[in-house]
Amino acid sequence: MKIKLVFLREFMQRIKSKGFILSTLLAPFGMVVFLGLTIYSVSLGMEEESTQKIAINDKTGVVAPLLKLPDSYTLKHGVVDENVLRKQVLDGTLDGYLFIPPDALQGDAKLTFFSGGGGGIGKQILLQNAIEEAVRAARLKQANLPENVKAIFEAETRLEMKEITATGEKADTTGALTGIAFAMAFLIYMMMLIYGSLVMQSVIEEKLNRVMEVLISSVRPFDLLMGKVLGMGALGMVQMLAWSGLSMAMTTAMGPLLLLFFDPQKMNLPDTASQQQVLESAGFAIPELSPMLFVWFVLFFIGGYLLYASYFAAIGSAVESPQDAQQLMMPITFLIIVPMLFINTVIMNPDSTMAMVLSMIPFFSPILMPARIAATDVPFWEPAIAFILLAATFLGAIWVSARIYRIGVLSYGKKPKMSDLLKWIRTA
Hints:
The structure is a single chain. This protein is an alpha/beta fold. The chain has helices at residues 2-15, 18-47, 82-90, 121-142, 147-154, 174-208, 211-216, 221-259, 275-281, 291-318, 322-348, 353-360, 365-375, 381-408, 418-427, and strands spanning 52-58, 73-77, 96-100, 112-115, 162-165, 168-171. Helix 8 packs across helix 9 (275-281).
């Protein structure tokens, strides 16, 4: 009963605050604005090309004429003096120069581009692709092959991914699911850090203002700890559900939004092509998300939050200021950060043994298991066992945290060390 009272106090006090309301409403809006600006900036980057002045020192005499670069590139031919070219690069007359050795058409060609540095990786990739095509075309021309054979070499090959379903087939959505997996992992990571820290700050404030002494006189330390953790967790769930609803709406609206950046005619599609045909031709597909993904997402968020929030609350009870808590927080924060170091490995190869083992570890599973479920088909028993292990670990964590909390909330003056916390656990 007293846990419920503390729970309602924590929940109602914060859910009515302007900070919570604004963050719940503005954070999704900021996400939409960020996504829109990102797409807009990418489209601008694709359209806008800065001018480049490049000299070409072609010792073969045949590669340079076949080099195809955008109109923004000005090519200067015929200069062979290396010292002159280097000086022009240094004084800014040239952005760079390309040296094509005489043996560029034999074996593994090694060409060199000298520049003053900078310019971005995009320009390097563009130049690399253009040079490869020019050398390939020069080799084909040198071999005096018939035109139909040249066409075979120059033809592009595209691998189209399809997923077989019970009703037929559909475009493979692995790319989109990978993005969703990264987003879910990052969201849980951020929410555990933010709300765990809020629990700690709440305990510190009440201890600093001596409110804790009044509360302890009428509520057991364990009831106070559980009420705080559950109240703040419920607050996080409300915010998470609000953000999830918006995310589902954004997923539904993503198709029409992406259509603004693709022209059916350039894809050899009729003007009457459907949204799905255009997106599939461009390599995009909107995935169908299983309801179980959201169920596991919520369960692992709750489990991970309860696990780490109990530790954060114990740390808050042992100190008198956020600055004093920094050293004690390091081991807990480290456990939250570690799975993010493995997130790329787990999502890129979610069916590997390493990914399965890491996602089973209770301290890592709140982040890694939902990401795996989003990225691939995971047997039901794996998340089920992972969640049971997580729940058991939480029970152990709340037992440890309660013993620290019982002594820490009434301890003042001395900043505790890790050895002090271990002593409190043994003696409480």
